[in-house]
Amino acid sequence: MVAAQKADLSVELCGVRFESPFVLAAGPPSDDLDMLRAGLAAGWAGAVLKTTSVEGTKVDLANPIISGLDVGKERAAALGNIDLISVHHIDEVGKRIEKLKGEFPDRVIAASISGADEVSWQDVARRAATAGADLIEASFSCPQGGLGQKPRAMLAQDPEASARVCSWIKDVAGATPVVIKLTPQVADIAEIALAVKGAGADAVCVGNTIPALMGVDLDDFVPIPQLGGSSTYCGLSGPAIKPMSLRCVAEVAGRARMPVVASGGAADWRDALEFVLLGASVVQFCTAVMHRGFGIVEGFIDGMASHLEAKGIGSLDEIRGAALSKIVDHDELPRKEVRAVIDEKACVRCGMCHVSCRDGAHRAIDVGEGGLPAVDDGRCTGCGLCAAICPAKCIEMREAGRGRR
Predict the structure, then answer these.
(1) pTM score, whole prediction
(2) I need a labelling partner for 183 at 20 to 30 A (CA). Which of 131, 239, 260, 311 fits?
(3) 286 assigned to active site
(4) pLDDT value at position 207?
């Protein structure tokens, strides 16, 4: 049972109401009907079914499709996948949409679609709308045939091609809102967003996995994941890509000024709220669910609602985009003298600040009696490395002259 909300988390996007901003992204958790039922029953406000295509589209998976990025002792801090679109084509996905809308009428059911030419894009879009999808999400952020100007380029890396395909979809979608899913792998993501906005897109989804290589096995020298002695590039997801996704959401919301769905890197409600503060309406989750299960959404709802209530905020609409005005060019940043200040009571005397400052910054932190670090204000420039490294989070960068704790 989902905890009672302490603040209004409902969101409206393109005329479609969501009970909360927490949505299942197109991916493995949304590629099975029973899994979708379980996710929606757990409390997710909606789901984007895994990207589908017209019948006859070859979907030739090569397993294992998932590999993990380990950081220290943490397993799978991020995931890499060589997955493709769903093996279920629009005939089956359309039936699933109809069933889910009947069983969960208060939840948002979206179809993610792909095509190879005008006929297939329009066919799959038309049939998704006819099946009753609340939204159509068009995946322009994976290799989609040869519609771009460059070989092997993603459709969303080409503003003209993106606008053209968007217009095809809008011509047949009728009243169903169209969301274009973009890739962060471009020099200027706002340019692509503006291109599809001009072609009639109702919103954009920012962004998707990041093309990556997960590693190389040091014993046999084969890249990861290994498939019979070979490997390939993958899509990196999870917390590792959150900073890139935040930047892309801010760029699109700030410059294109159109509704934004955030996707890529969010692992909890705090991450989701950061995306909202940068202009996103809803936030999609996939890797976090694959790691910790559908049930995490209950904590998301309760955590975000409690936080808003504690701050006296009644709804997400009050704070959407509130952080955008605080992003400025580097030459507009204030120039003030700051110094590191250590909370001695909270310090665990691990010595990490001393080592990082000694070998990576300005040698301004020494270790005193009992292992307690001390800052030399004459050498400290306020770079912030020690605060970023400190496991106890007991170092604050404070304006010079404000004194110590």
Answers:
(1) 0.94
(2) 131
(3) no
(4) 87
